[in-house]
Amino acid sequence: MTMSPIDPGLIERHNADRRKHLDADYASLGERLSRRGVDIDAIARKVSAFTVAVPSWGVGTGGTRFARFPGPGEPRGIFEKLDDCAVIQALGRATPAVSLHIPWDKADPAELKGRADALGLRFDAMNSNTFQDHPSDPNQPLSYKFGSLSHADRAVREQAVAHNVETIRIGTAIGSKAITVWIGDGTNFAGQADLGRSFDRYLESMRAIVAALPSDWRVFTEHKMYEPAFYSTVVSDWGTNLMIAQELGEKAFCLVDLGHHAPNTNIEQIVSRLIRAKKLGGFHFNDSRYGDDDLDAGSIDPFRLFLVFNELVGAGEALDRLHPTHMIDQSHNVTDPIESLIRSANEIRRAYAQALLVDRAALTGYQDANDAMMGSETLKNAFRTDVEPILAKARVDAGGAIDPIAAYRGSGYRAKVAAERPASVGGGGGIV
Description:
Blueprint: H1 8-16, H2 19-34, H3 40-49, E1 54-55, H4 78-92, E2 97-99, H5 109-119, E3 122-123, E4 126-127, H6 154-174, E5 178-181, E6 186-187, H7 195-211, E7 218-222, E8 232-233, H8 238-248, E9 252-257, H9 267-276, E10 280-285, H10 302-315, H11 317-320, E11 325-328, H12 337-356, H13 360-368, H14 372-383, H15 388-397, H16 404-411, H17 413-420
Parallel strand pairs: 1-2, 2-3, 4-5, 5-7, 7-9, 9-10, 10-11
Antiparallel strand pairs: 6-8
Helix pairs in contact: 2-15, 3-12, 3-15, 4-5, 4-12, 5-6, 6-7, 9-10, 10-12, 13-14
């Protein structure tokens, strides 16, 4: 039996007060969609089947380079993080998997799996960490200040490889099937390192990691234009990332973080190219205005998120064969992280539902006829559709809440854990 931190009776009472209005809204939207030849129930089933993983670190308060302002009831370790993740899943029913970060979440694998099973959760891709030093880890005594997998010192590179292999071993024990490798390696000054030799050393290290993968595992490499390095970054863009995946072979794929590009980059076109190359591995969803802001998905530019899903849905079987993974990666600085993750998962599903409403045959016809206006309008018609009744119906049918943030606030969960968990102390720069 699943152990839920949220009383199912609370969800039932919450829904009882709102079910009549939801049914009316769903019926009204269904009638309007039927005029377009769209079966609302078919859309709802697809939305229900679409899930996104939450990051374990996302349930804590994030920060900036300047300060971190902790919130009440922050989780003290991975098991309390899993409790918070279970709240998100219980109310939103879109996030049954959690992505762990090692060594932050290092614990006995049997205990991790037992706790997740009890909460009705599973584990998504693992994440290694060689962008920080770990002085308390006897297996990582060497510093990553000047790089990790691309470091000039072979001993540091071997330490970083060993850490990734350990992360794979932990992931295997808890049922994960992939590892995401993001490194902060790069330089702040021209001449600090040889750009070509750094990349060659990185590839050599990654080959060792790929060699350690179980037969049914994949590795996702993640690019980022800048930060923490500001002159050059070893894995800086999607072209470099694609080159890496192609060189590493059939188990290697590219992961796209929506905030890891230059401002105004056409991310949906990158997605299209990676699908064509058969190397799209998945996503870290978030939103941004200036850089790697890690804001809530869909909170700044929901149309861009929709356009990404338009490419995913439009790819059809070409995408299905890739089995991409989907995860949220955000920093919650001024909101309750549970609320932000509930909303973000819903916004991601919203973009998917809207993309499912695009009239593909009409769109292709307008594109082939060079009708720019009607091609644009076809996308806009889908984007302008209020699909909230579909999202709410998917939640309710799976046992979730019609208004999950309202239900969460009504549950008193944050006040409860704030009373149980010691207050976290603020400090300097947080995780960004």
